[in-house]
Structure formats: structure tokens, C-alpha cells
Known about the structure:
Distance between the termini: 44 Å
Mean pLDDT: 93
CATH class: Mainly Alpha
Largest sheet: none
Oligomer: single chain
Structural class: mainly alpha
Radius of gyration: 17 Å
CATH topology: Tetracycline Repressor, domain 2
Order of helices and strands: HHHHHHHHH
Amino acid sequence: MLRPTKTQIDAEIVDRAAALFARHDFEHTSLQQIADAVGYSKAGLLHHFPSKKALYDAVISALRAHIEAMAAGVRSLPVGIERDRALVEASIDFAFERPGISALSNRIAVDPDPDNAELTAIGLIMYEALGIDLANLEMDRLVRVTSAFAGLGITAAIAEKNKLSKEWRGMIAAAAMDALGH
């Protein structure tokens, strides 16, 4: 068996930390909890990330990179069913691959911090990718998008936890597309 690379180890730490931040919030998550979740000593964890804040910044950076990559991937598609499907499928895959960051994304959507410019920017990138114009807000579209992506995130987490990702992937995509009105 091949040893994981530093990049793979760091990605695992970031995802596990994100899950804890989603569950307990930044202030109520300790370095020891994160170390325990990844099977490291606190000193071993600090070898990878010098502080809890540095780890949180890495989590937010990974979330932003994902959202930016998704947005770039659909930029050439017109707003509509094809773009929505591409975003739904990318979101499902990400939820399976990075369940902790996906959970944090859902938590941020439920409890946004209007004073956090970075999180606001991430949300705006996703809204733009989905064709949501905040200047001419269509409440029906906003509710459909929120329902589709929140439901997708939660259902993907349940599927992943129960090792049903392959079996449920198509049904999750279909349910999200239904919620979007397609």
C-alpha cells in the first residue's frame, strides 16, 4: 500500500476539521478534538498546521477553490437545466469526496456571517454560477436553489455515512433537479 502524500494528509486533516467546525463552530472546536479526529497528537497536528486559525483558513480556502472551480466549469453554459445539472453533479461528487467541507458549506448557508467578507464572496460566486441575480431576486428560484443544494448536501452525507454513495448518486441528482424545477 502506498503512503499518503503530504497533500493527501493535509486534505484529510482539512476535511475532518471542517466537519468539526460545522458541528461545533470555530470557537467551540479545539485543536485536541481535531487531532483526535485525525489520529494525531496535538503536536503532530501542529506540525501540519501551526494554529487552529491556520487550519480554519485552509478549510475556507479549500471551499473557495471548490466553488470557484465549479463556477469556472459552468461559465460557458447558459443559465438553465444544463448548468444546473453540472452544478448539482459537481456538488454531489464534492460532498462524497470532502464531506466535512460540504457540511461546513451547509452550515454557512444556514447561519451566514454578514461580517465575513470571504464567506460572503464564496456565496456570491455560487449564486452567480446558478444564475441568481441579487439585484433582481426571484424568490422562487432562491428557495428552489436553497432546497436543492441543502437537501443534496444532507442526503449525500447520509449516503456517504452508510456507504451508499454509488447507489444513491443518481437519485440525489434527480431529487435536486426536481427541487430546481427541472
